[in-house]
Structures are given as C-alpha cells and as structure tokens.
C-alpha cells in the first residue's frame, strides 16, 4: 500500500479517486456489470430460547498436539539405535518395572506397590521380560510404551503395556524371535466400557450384585501362547528364571546412580 | 619405618586424581619439588603434581626422559603390567572395576553364589562342631 502522508495520521498518500483507480475498483465493477458485488447478508439467527446465566466463553477445544515421546535410548532393543521400529525386534531386554504408581487392580497386580508385610519402604519392583516395542499409541496420549509379559507363570506379570518412564531397562536380553506380537495393539488393551446399570433403592446397597470382573478366555490363551515361547528362551539361560521371578530392590550401600543395569 | 617407595626415574605410579585417574604411569623426570614428568605407553607425556600420584613398588630401568619406544620396551622387559596385575593392589582394583560393571542380572547371580557359598561354609562348620563335641 502506498505510504501514508507524513502530514498526519489518516491523511493518505493517494486521494480518493486516485486510490479508486489504483485498486482497480473500476475493473471489478465492470466485471460485475456496473455495480460493486455485495456480499449477501446471512439470514438472521432465530432468537435463542435460552440465554446462559453467566457470560461464559465457550471453551475452545485444545489444538495442542503433544509431542511424540521419543523412545529412551536406554530402553531401545538396539541399545545404540535411537530409531524404534514397529516390527517386532528379534530380541528384547529385561526390564525392571517400577510398580509403585500402578493402581491396584483385581487379581494379579497386588504384588506391586509397598508391601507392608515385608516392611519395605518403597514398593518392590518386579522384573519383567519385554515382548516388543510399540509405536506411540494413536490415542489422545501419545506415550511410548512397551508390551511386556512376566512371563505370567514366572512372576505373575501378564501381557500388558508399560510406559517407558516406569521402567529401568537392563542390558540382559532374551531372544523373542519365537513370539508373535503382531496382534497386540491398543485396542487389545482397551478397557471395557462399564455399562451403567440403574440400581433400585433396595439394590443400591447390595454390593454382591456387582459383576465380578474376569479375564476373557482368549486373553488367557494369548498369555499362554506368548509365554510358551518366552519361557523356552528363558530356560535356556541358567538362573534367568529365578532372576525374573525375584523382585528388585535397593539395599543399604547400593548407589543406583552408579549401578550399571 | 624408613621409606621404601621413592620418587625416582623409572618409578611406576598410579594416578589417583584427575583426567587420568587409575592409569599406571612411569616417572620419567622430576620437574621441581612438586612435579614430575610422567609418561605411559598410551598417553602423551605430561607433568603431574606428586600429589596426584600414588607410588607403587614397581620400578623400571630407564634413563632420564627416554624415547617413547624405549620406554615401551623397558616396560615390557620389566613386565610392569604382569607385576601390577599380580600384586594385591592391582588385583583389588581389577575386582573393583569388575564389580562396578556388573549388570543387574550379574548382581543377582553373585547373590545366589554368595548364598550358596555361605551355605556350604556353614555346613562344614556344623560338621566340625559336631565332631568337636562328639
């Protein structure tokens, strides 16, 4: 645009007719048959039935896309390889899971968290065999997690996802080429939607009626299938089975910042 | 009570502070009251304060400031590495390094081995006690 006149703010460099010519309004008018095209006014909205009591701005949905979490290089199957692959690697690392932040679920997970019977200060962590790595889940949280399995027979850890922040990867490796991991993805682990059942007044306090949660059979079979291959690989290494069955804990004199995992 | 390990040309010392911590070096010349010129086969010759050096029992036969190749030859003839690794000091350091590099799985195996060893010792002790009281 032409610079404004230095005389004063609002006094333009080009005069009204000069600006008209420069902007080509004559050409636009000619194109539309002599008149300047007018935008149609949108139809007036009907009077809303309900005005909210407070003038509250509607919350705009967040357009922030969280960054894809990178796989920590210490947890990658190929220790030096920073790029993770979606195909299942041929081997996996043993992981130490830090279980203290897990919610206590039904059945198997009561082993994690502080165990008051043993008097440990912080939770003992279980050692777990990592089955495969997974891409950041295409869900609203893009976290990088692993699929791992105890194996269940050895230490009670089922096939589950674990976030890499809850894990210390060790340099011990187990050959998992015999394990088929392709069918596990986020949908497999999605929670069942609870159906809301309206309780009558008498039934509100009836706790017996709450449905017992149990694992569907196909999941149990999957567990067995994965573990069969894993256990074979594990038993080929002496002491590895007892190692996976044992809990990890720190003792007096341990310096975790100096320990090599 | 007299001193046995002297700062002299050819004395092998262990660096106990700084960038070269843990390295075995040979004193090749003395710069002044506090510093020595120090050399090792895989290192550029440099000066070090005596405070950074821990003298060992090992001494090699070299002239003042020998050439690198002469130094290496003299070290091999005196078998500095072998003597060091067989000395109790050297053995301790090797064990320390090994322990620091243990994997979590290795540490677990060590624990199992210690338990086993302790069990075996206790069994023998029990046998001996029984024999003594019998």
From TrEMBL, chain A:
Region feature Disordered, mapped onto this chain: 35-79
Protein name: 60S ribosomal protein L6
Position of the signal peptide: none
Species the sequence originates in: Eragrostis curvula
Protein family according to the UniProt entry: Belongs to the eukaryotic ribosomal protein eL6 family.
Gene Ontology annotations for the cellular component aspect, listed alphabetically: cytosolic large ribosomal subunit
One Gene Ontology term from the biological process aspect of the record: ribosomal large subunit assembly
Short name of any one Pfam family annotated for the protein: Ribosomal_L6e
Compositional bias of kind Basic residues: 62-73
GO molecular function: RNA binding; structural constituent of ribosome
Matches recorded under PROSITE patterns: RIBOSOMAL_L6E
Biased composition (Low complexity): 42-51
Keywords: Ribonucleoprotein, Ribosomal protein
Automatic annotation (TrEMBL), chain B:
Entries under Pfam families matching the protein: Ribosomal_L14e
Large ribosomal subunit protein eL14 domain: residues covered: 45-117
One GO biological process term: ribosomal large subunit biogenesis
Coiled coil: none
Origin: domain of life: Eukaryota
GO cellular component: cytosolic large ribosomal subunit
Keyword terms: Ribonucleoprotein, Ribosomal protein
GO MF: mRNA binding; structural constituent of ribosome
Family named by the database record: Belongs to the eukaryotic ribosomal protein eL14 family.
Stated name of the protein: Large ribosomal subunit protein eL14 domain-containing protein
Organism: Eragrostis curvula
């Amino acid at each position: 645009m032409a610079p404004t006149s230095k005389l004063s703010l609002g006094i333009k460099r080009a005069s009204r007719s000069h600006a008209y010519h420069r902007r080509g309004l004559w050409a636009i008018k000619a194109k539309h048959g002599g008149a300047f095209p007018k935008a149609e006014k949108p139809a007036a909205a009907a009077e809303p039935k309900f005005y909210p009591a407070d003038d509250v701005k509607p919350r705009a949905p967040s357009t922030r896309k969280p960054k894809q979490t990178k796989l920590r290089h210490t947890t990658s199957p190929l220790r030096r390889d920073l790029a993770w692959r979606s195909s299942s690697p041929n081997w996996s690392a043993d992981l130490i899971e830090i279980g203290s932040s897990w919610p206590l679920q039904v059945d198997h997970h009561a082993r994690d968290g502080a165990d008051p019977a043993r008097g440990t200060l912080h939770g003992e962590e279980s050692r777990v065999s990592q089955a495969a790595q997974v891409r950041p889940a295409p869900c609203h949280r893009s976290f990088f997690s692993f699929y791992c399995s105890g194996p269940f027979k050895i230490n009670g850890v089922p096939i589950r996802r674990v976030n890499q922040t809850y894990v210390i990867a060790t340099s011990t490796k187990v050959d998992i080429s015999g394990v088929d991991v392709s069918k596990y993805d986020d949908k497999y682990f999605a929670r069942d939607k609870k159906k809301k059942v309206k309780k009558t007044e008498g039934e509100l306090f009836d706790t017996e009626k709450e449905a017992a949660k149990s694992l569907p059979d196909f999941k149990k079979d999957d567990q067995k299938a994965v573990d069969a291959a894993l256990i074979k690989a594990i038993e080929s290494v002496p002491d590895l089975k007892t190692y996976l069955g044992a809990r990890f804990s720190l003792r007096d004199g341990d310096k975790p910042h100096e320990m090599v995992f | 009570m007299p001193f046995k390990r002297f700062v002299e040309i050819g004395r092998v010392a262990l660096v106990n502070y700084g960038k070269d911590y843990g390295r075995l070096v040979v004193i090749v010349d003395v710069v002044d009251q506090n510093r020595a010129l120090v050399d090792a086969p895989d290192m550029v010759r440099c000066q070090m304060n005596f405070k950074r050096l821990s003298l060992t029992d090992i001494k090699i036969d070299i002239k003042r400031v020998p050439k690198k190749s002469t130094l290496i030859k003299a070290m091999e003839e005196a078998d500095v590495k072998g003597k060091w690794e067989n000395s109790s000091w050297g053995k301790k350091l090797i064990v320390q390094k090994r322990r620091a590099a243990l994997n979590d799985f290795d540490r677990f195996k060590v624990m199992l081995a210690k338990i086993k060893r302790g069990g075996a010792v206790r069994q023998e002790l029990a046998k001996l006690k029984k024999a003594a009281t019998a």
